[in-house]
Amino acid sequence: MANDARSSRVTVAGGTVEGRIRDGVASFLGVPYAAPPFGPNRMLPPQPVVPWPDVRDAGRMGPTVPKGDYPPVFQRLFLEEEIEGEECLNVNVWTPDPGASGLPVLVWIHGGAFLNGSNSVAAYDGSGFARSGVVCVTVNYRLAAEGFLFLDDDASNLGLRDQLAALEWVRENIVAFGGDAGNVTLAGESAGAMSIATLLAMPSAAGLFARAVTQSGAAANTLTAEQGLAVSTLLAHTLDVPHTRSAIAAVPPDRLVAAASQVFAEIQTDADPAKWGSLALSGLPFAPVIDGTVLPVHPLDAARAGRSASVPLLTGWNRDEDRLFLVAANMLDAIDEAALFDKARTYGLKPEAIEIYRAARPGATPGDLLAAVGTDWVFAIPALRYAEARVAGGAASTWVYRFDHLEPADNDGFGACHATEVPFVFRTEGHDSVRALIGARPSTEAAATAHDAWVSFARTGTPGWEPYDTTRRPTALIAEKIRVVDDPAPDERRAWDGIR
Asked: What is the longest distance spanned by two Cα atoms in the chain?
């Protein structure tokens, strides 16, 4: 292995890759972990990586999977790259020393509603973890119909199978980067966190990671087989092709991306619970499906049954999650009392519960209250119920956090909204690409606090505060410092008892 001030070579499954060393961190970008998912491999389970005969340049990000654009209101907040090429099932690796051994490993599964995102996003630069002595791996996986089309056949949940293939690649190859294959923490945000809760329920994922982190996404967002078939039927109708895998796989990727985006928009617009069930409220038509094989049972049921009992978990949410969606769409100030109560009713929340939220927020507008209610419905309550299910199932310790850094005045009204914790966790809070979301003057102290908790969890299996229980409910409120509070907002939490 050559290792100098400019480059470093390691050998992995498939061949030798040459990365770059900058500021004491070696990076190896765009390394394939599976064969290109096109041609005869299109919309089928991931196949073994295709070997390369020569030294492969790993100095730049690899191709991204077929994906659409974020809705226009989010595009300035989540800057995406679209990198052409077929070898899109790839990983990026950052390490402090490829010649080391036994370093802890953090594997990152990105978010994006199972429609968007990639491992090339600047906020996911793993250099900060490498500088803290942790090998960081970021993963691409197939999205939308390419990754989550359900036809009740033997090729369901392909995006999850991609994630499994990437974890198997880590197990077999991470030692070449100085990592310990037995000390892998799997972390993800939003759809990435939902994926991880699902992986914890999958027998095929057992033993591939030692601990897990789910950020702003818990175990509630899966589809039944019936819902999956309804989505694929709508997709086939939109494409005007037969409702078969071969017919849909024959559609060019760009056309399939456009059709999947159309299905996504149609379901979100026609959010009829009588037609779509729980999908009407989650709004995620392409998501893991409980197929009885790859994913045998609902992740919550798996947790209650102790399926992930040996895997410690760090889980949580951001204080102002739902402000992302209301502020970006310029809807926060348009919400009046009638709209507040109407929306809360769709969640199943009783009118008197709104007054509980109001009493805790003097001077809050109806939009502010709806943001708080929506945050709990989509993010906080599912995270707590997942933690409770794990406690009931006798699982290894579970830690709960709430990310509280950033006030609405810091970042044009967003506050500690969805995804704001990510650059703090990665120590990419200074990247230009995240300014629109977290503001121009993010706290380096808050970033150090969040990052250090994740590093501690990856190194030692504890983030530094007490594990969760259903008596005291200790919760770490993360800002410039960590403050542990027993059962923050208990009245609001209890308002959701019996709902869903």
From this structure: 68
